[in-house]
Every structure is written in structure tokens, then in C-alpha cells.
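Whiteboard transcription, Tuesday session. T.W. wrote the C-alpha cells on the left side:
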């Protein structure tokens, strides 16, 4: 098999090519000034990403997991020994890890089957007097039903912290990430807005909360050697800020290219469903949402066998996530009620390659190979 035959899950080389000259010039400037921590690139990126997201403040940090912990700690979550935070079991384990690191107990609830996002009805069932926050994860590139979560919370003093690691540029009813409470996002290289290493950010419209988050992320200090909070060290690296600024200028266009690719998959898979007489569980966009298609996730029978066939053919498909959080060792006792939808999804979901540069021919080959795998049980 030649390199041309291979279709990567995400094409980081193509993404780098688009910004290579700008990044090289920015790196040269940082090296010349030796401003390796903080400095103009970080400040400018924070301002630009806040504006892009429709928020007032952005605090750059070391990674997305830190960003969630930072937001929770700034809100005072975890200060009591019995604090609980509700989050979906259908998410990456980092969401639960951040809650535990903040000093609270993750309470895992089921997803809805249509959109695979946190089910507000399950959130309602899980709320107790110990609940301090809810984290509605914006999975795969679209926002969770924030207004329904807010309705469930009602007048209780329960914060919302949005896990927006997969939703940079997504909106719901015209509002971007962070409209219901502080949002945490990740700039891991494979994200829609990806750095050249680990990086993340927290967003908010609350100036005081932003100040607290910034202090906590820098050893509890806004002024050198004056420590007002118990903090830790999680800062956005200056070189990563250079990369992120270059990519941010192209993010809206890249997200639109992802939407085009998703629409192309919809058409191709619709034809495949009619031909094969099966339902491939194509992803659905919730009303009011503008999806940014970080992942394109379908549902197939005999998922692991089909995945193996795709990978053997050089197609970089994946699974997000094969092991729900409540099935992991650290959080096996953190789901007070069964999560049947999440368990069902874990055995069926299959993520197809999607990125701004994917071509029509590549997508056609993905779907053709998928169809062959579905009808041919001969491994």
C-alpha cells in the first residue's frame, strides 16, 4: 500500500503547511526576544480567542484538563468534602479527572441516544444537596442543551462549567461556548484549533472569575511573590500561542470546510444506507446548533470488525470512546444509575476521518471501504 492510498484520521501535516511561514516568523521573533513565558503572543491570542468565541475574557493554560479544574476551583467547587459535579459518562476521562483533581466527586449520568450528549433528564435525577456544578460536555463539535440544563438546575446554587474541548467555533441559538458559565477548551494538536503540543484555555464573561482563574493558574499569584490563592502552574506557552494565533485566523474557514465534508458524508452514507438496507446512525445536529464537526461519528454493527477492516485498508478510523468513564477503573462506582445508552453507544460508534483538507475522492473511498466491510464478514 502506498502513502497515497492511506487516508489519515486527521491530517496535521496539511494543517501545518497552511501556517508554516507565519509560524516560523513568529517563532523567530520569540527566540530573538527570549520571551518564552507570557508576552505579547499570549496576550494577543487570549484577546483574539475570547473575541472569536463571543466572550469577554480568556485565560490561556497548559492543557484542557487544567482548564476544567481551574474553572471549578475558581468557582469554589471542591472546597467541601462532599461536593459533587454531574457530568456525562459519554466523554473522555479527562472531564472526570479534572473534577477529582479539584477535590469534588464526579457523578456520571447517561447520554441521550439521538445526539449522544448529556441527557438533561438524567441530570435532574442526579442532583442532590451536594451538587455544586454540572459539566455539559459539548461532544463531537456541537453544544449540549445548555438551556435545558439551566432549566433543570432552576434557582439552585449550582454552577455550569462547559467542557468545550471539541467545540471551538460552535454555537447554539447564536451563542458560542461559555454562554452558560465558564468554558474550558483544549488545543491538543488534533482539535479544530490545535497547537503543536499541549495547550488549553478557560473562557468567561465574569471579570472577577477570570482574575481568580489567572491567579490560580500562576501559583495563586497575579503579582510576583504575592500569593493570594492556593494555585498551581499551568500557563499557555508562548510558542504555542504563536501557532494558535496563526491557526485561529483560519479557524472559521476550516470549520466551514468540515461542515462541507460532513454534508458530503451525509450524502454518501445516505446512498449506502439505501443500497445496503441498514441504518448507519448518521450524526444528527440538534436544533439551534451550528456544528463544527470535530468528529464525524456513525453507528455500525460489529464495530470492531468493521474498524479493523478500515484500518487494514489504510483508513484512519477510530472510536470515541470505546470505554465510557463509568467503565474505567478509577470511576467504576461513580454512576448512581445505569447508563444504558452510553453502554450501547460504546459498542457501536465509529469515527470516520474528517478534517478541512479531506477530499471528495478520499471520502468516497472511506464510504466504499465501509460498505464492503459491512457486507463482507470474511476477515
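and on the right, the sequence the group agreed on:
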Amino acid at each position: 500500500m502506498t502513502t497515497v492510498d492511506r487516508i489519515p484520521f486527521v491530517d496535521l501535516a496539511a494543517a501545518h503547511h497552511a501556517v508554516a511561514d507565519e509560524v516560523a516568523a513568529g517563532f523567530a521573533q520569540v527566540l530573538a526576544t527570549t520571551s518564552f513565558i507570557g508576552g505579547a503572543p499570549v496576550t494577543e491570542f487570549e484577546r483574539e480567542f475570547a473575541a472569536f468565541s463571543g466572550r469577554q475574557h480568556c485565560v490561556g493554560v497548559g492543557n484542557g484538563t487544567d482548564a476544567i479544574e481551574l474553572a471549578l476551583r475558581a468557582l469554589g467547587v471542591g472546597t467541601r468534602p462532599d461536593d459533587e459535579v454531574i457530568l456525562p459518562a459519554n466523554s473522555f476521562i479527562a472531564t472526570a479527572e479534572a473534577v477529582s483533581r479539584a477535590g469534588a466527586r464526579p457523578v456520571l449520568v447517561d447520554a441521550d441516544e439521538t445526539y449522544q450528549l448529556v441527557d438533561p433528564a438524567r441530570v435532574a435525577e442526579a442532583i442532590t444537596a451536594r451538587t455544586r456544578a454540572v459539566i455539559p460536555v459539548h461532544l463531537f463539535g456541537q453544544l449540549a442543551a445548555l438551556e435545558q440544563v439551566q432549566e433543570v438546575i432552576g434557582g439552585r446554587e449550582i454552577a455550569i462549567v462547559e467542557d468545550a474541548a471539541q467545540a471551538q467555533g460552535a454555537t447554539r441559538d447564536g451563542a458560542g461556548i461559555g454562554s452558560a458559565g465558564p468554558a474550558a477548551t483544549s488545543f491538543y494538536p488534533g482539535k479544530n484549533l490545535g497547537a503543536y503540543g499541549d495547550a488549553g484555555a478557560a473562557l468567561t464573561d465574569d471579570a472577577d472569575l477570570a482574575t481568580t482563574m489567572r491567579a490560580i493558574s500562576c501559583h495563586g499569584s497575579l503579582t510576583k511573590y504575592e500569593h493570594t490563592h492556593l494555585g498551581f502552574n499551568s500557563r499557555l506557552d508562548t510558542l504555542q500561542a504563536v501557532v494558535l494565533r496563526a491557526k485561529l485566523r483560519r479557524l472559521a474557514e476550516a470549520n466551514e470546510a468540515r461542515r462541507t465534508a460532513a454534508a458530503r458524508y451525509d450524502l454518501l452514507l445516505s446512498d449506502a444506507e439505501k443500497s445496503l438496507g441498514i441504518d448507519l446512525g448518521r450524526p444528527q445536529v440538534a436544533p439551534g446548533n451550528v456544528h463544527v464537526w470535530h468528529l464525524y461519528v456513525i453507528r455500525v454493527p460489529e464495530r470492531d470488525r468493521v474498524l479493523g477492516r478500515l484500518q487494514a485498508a489504510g483508513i484512519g478510523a477510530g472510536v470515541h470512546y470505546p470505554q465510557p468513564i463509568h467503565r474505567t477503573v478509577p470511576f467504576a462506582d461513580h454512576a448512581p444509575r445505569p447508563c444504558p445508552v452510553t453502554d450501547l453507544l460504546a459498542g457501536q460508534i465509529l469515527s470516520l476521518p474528517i478534517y478541512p483538507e479531506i477530499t471528495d475522492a478520499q471520502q468516497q473511498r472511506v464510504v466504499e471501504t465501509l460498505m464492503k466491510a459491512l457486507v463482507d464478514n470474511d476477515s
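Someone added at the bottom: The chain has a mean pLDDT of 96.
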